[in-house]
Write a structure and sequence with these properties.
The chain is an alpha/beta fold. 39% of the residues lie in helices and 18% in strands. The protein contains eleven helices and eleven strands. Strands 1, 2, 3, 4, 5, 6, 7, 8 and 11 form a nine-stranded mixed β-sheet that branches. A two-stranded antiparallel sheet has the order 9-10. Helix 6 packs across helix 7, helix 7 packs parallel to helix 8 and helix 10 packs parallel to helix 11.
Length: 302
């Protein structure tokens, strides 16, 4: 794996960027990673989002250069003893999986970001219908993962997808089955257990969703329960979600961490540290202590 030039020595620090890394995005709210690190002890962030600039070329949010402010952000995190996992995709914007017309071209786009920052891991957030509900694009992404892992044997790859309360839907199941068929070595499959309905016990529904993911991985890959859980992860949402009436409370999230710990999940995170504050606007929409959810993630050790 290539090492980026000009980045701090902490780039190679022994921090696992996959395990416990809340999402952080540069669109608003609490955008200082070092303030969150100092307040909570969290060591890693999932940085959102790397998108297409309209071609098969990666840029932050589809517009910011890999060598600009986001590189400075990564350097600051590493100078503070942390590390990052960039996330490709998300819901909005133009996706590289759609714009790159071959697996090799898509792998090349991933490689630009890997080389720019000397990365240990990448997150492929496949939730937009252009990628998730398109068999051709699903296969292109998985073949690109295979090529990227061949070129970077030590790189960890996370694939993040939506979910039902009982696990991946038909598109998610296809993606997992195709990973097996293609031989794409995905290290952690992570589901987003929210936006289910208008409410309910979000801790219970999260556990049910991840259990469903575990069962799918067990069936597809022939894993034991323990191994399947270790290849499973979750990305929750703090406070009010996108669905009216649906809320992930601090108590819910504490319970979810207990579940993640008991099963040694390979990833435990949430969207997003930017929103990890009390009240509305850019915050969670609930009454909570500042950084309450980030602190819960920071305490997760797998």
């Amino acid at each position: 794996m290539a090492t980026a030039v000009g980045l701090a020595p902490q780039a190679m620090a022994a921090v696992d960027p996959v395990l416990a890394s809340p999402y952080l995005y540069q669109w608003g709210g609490q955008t200082s990673p070092t303030a969150a690190m100092s307040a909570t002890g969290v060591k890693a962030f999932t940085l959102a989002f790397v998108l297409s600039d309209g071609t098969c070329n990666p840029k932050w949010d589809g517009s910011r250069s890999l060598t600009g402010s986001d590189k400075t952000l990564i350097t600051n995190i590493r100078n503070a003893g942390g590390d990052v996992i960039p996330s490709f995709g998300g819901w909005s914007g133009t996706k590289l999986g759609s714009k790159c017309t071959s697996a090799s071209a898509l792998a090349g786009a991933y490689q630009k970001v890997i080389d720019a920052y000397g990365l240990k891991a990448i997150d492929l957030d496949i939730e937009n219908t252009d990628e998730f509900q398109n068999n051709t694009v699903q296969d292109r992404i998985l073949n690109a993962v295979k090529l990227t892992k061949q070129a970077n044997p030590n790189l960890k790859v996370v694939i993040t997808i939506g979910t039902t309360t009982t696990g991946p839907d038909s598109y998610g199941k296809r993606l997992i089955n195709q990973a097996k068929a293609i031989g794409a070595p995905v290290d952690v499959w992570s589901v987003m257990p929210f936006d289910f309905s208008s409410g309910g016990d979000m801790a219970a529904m999260t556990k049910s969703a991840v259990d469903g993911l575990k069962n799918q991985l067990k069936t597809t890959f022939g894993y034991t329960d323990d191994t399947a859980y270790r290849h499973s992860g979750l990305s929750s949402m703090n406070g009010k979600t996108d669905n009216a009436g649906e809320t992930v409370t601090v108590a819910n999230f504490t319970s979810i961490r207990g579940y993640a710990t008991s099963h040694h999940l390979g990833r435990f995170t949430f969207w997003a540290t930017n929103r990890d504050c009390s009240g509305g606007g850019e915050c969670s929409g609930i009454t909570q202590d500042k950084y309450a959810f980030t602190k819960i993630v920071a305490g997760y050790t797998g």
